[in-house]
């Protein structure tokens, strides 16, 4: 067996990463990238904390995709991957206080301040369409 566990995991999660990056969402994989991009992101920024769980696949990522069809969208789109890019995810979560770590989760920042947050428990029991409606309401409120 020649494949390392890390390589195996990277190969397994790549399609989950691609579901967001194909939408134009920029993946941040290091704490330095998170800090640099968040600090430079004037206006609004959507941050998706991606994960391998079923609710990320069935509700969160599809909900984000639907929400980004809205006419009003955030100025910046970012994602970090919980459990994969651990340090980058920890750095991003510093911006989501007072909320505890949650994955998947979706944050909307305006000029670096958290203005809307969807925690895992708000993903688990809702459909992608309900999550998209929640996000589009937030986009319409904060991104104009």
Walkthrough of the structure:
The protein has about 140 residues and is an alpha/beta fold. The model has no long low-confidence stretch (mean pLDDT about 95). α2 (about 30-40) runs parallel beside α4 and α3 (about 55-65) packs across α6. The protein is built from six helices and five strands; from the N terminus they run αβαβαβαββαα. A five-stranded mixed sheet has the order 1-3-2-4-5, with helices on both faces. The longest helix is centred in the N-terminal third of the chain and has 17 residues, at about 5-20. The protein has a single domain, classed as Glutaredoxin (3-Layer(aba) Sandwich).
Q: Which short descriptors sum up this protein?
A:
five-stranded mixed sheet, single chain, BrxA/BrxB family bacilliredoxin, globular, 6 helices, 48% helix, Glutaredoxin, alpha/beta, 144 residues
Please write out the topology.
Elements: H1 5-21, E1 26-27, H2 31-40, E2 44-50, H3 54-67, E3 76-81, H4 86-93, E4 105-110, E5 113-118, H5 120-124, H6 128-142
Parallel strand pairs: 1-3, 2-3
Antiparallel strand pairs: 2-4, 4-5
Helix pairs in contact: 2-4, 3-6
Q: C-alpha Rg, in Å?
A: 14 Å
Q: Summarize the helix and strand pattern as letters.
A: HEHEHEHEEHH
- Label the structural class: alpha/beta
Give the end-to-end Cα distance, rounded to a whole number of Å.
53 Å
CATH topology: Glutaredoxin
Number of strands: 5
Please give the largest β-sheet. Answer: 5 strands, mixed
Q: CATH class, please?
A: Alpha Beta
Shape: globular
Share of residues in helices: 40-55%
Strand content: 15-25%
Q: What's the CATH H-level superfamily name?
A: Glutaredoxin
Low-confidence stretches: none
Total count of domains: 1
Number of helical stretches of at least 4 residues: 6
How are the strands of the biggest sheet laid out side by side? 1-3-2-4-5
| Average pLDDT rating | 95
Q: What CATH architecture do you see?
A: 3-Layer(aba) Sandwich
């Amino acid at each position: 067996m020649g494949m390392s566990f890390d390589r195996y995991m990277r190969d397994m999660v790549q399609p989950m990463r691609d579901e967001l990056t194909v939408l134009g969402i920029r993946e941040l994989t290091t704490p330095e990238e998170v800090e640099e991009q968040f600090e430079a992101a004037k206006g609004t920024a959507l941050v998706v904390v991606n994960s391998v769980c079923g609710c990320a696949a069935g509700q969160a990522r599809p909900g984000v995709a639907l929400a980004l069809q809205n006419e009003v969208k955030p100025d910046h789109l970012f994602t970090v991957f919980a459990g994969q890019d651990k340090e980058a995810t920890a750095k991003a979560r510093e911006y989501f206080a007072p909320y505890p770590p949650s994955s998947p989760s979706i944050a909307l920042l305006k000029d670096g301040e958290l203005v809307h947050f969807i925690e895992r428990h708000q993903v688990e029991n809702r459909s992608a369409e309900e999550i998209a409606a929640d996000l589009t309401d937030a986009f319409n409120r904060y991104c104009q």
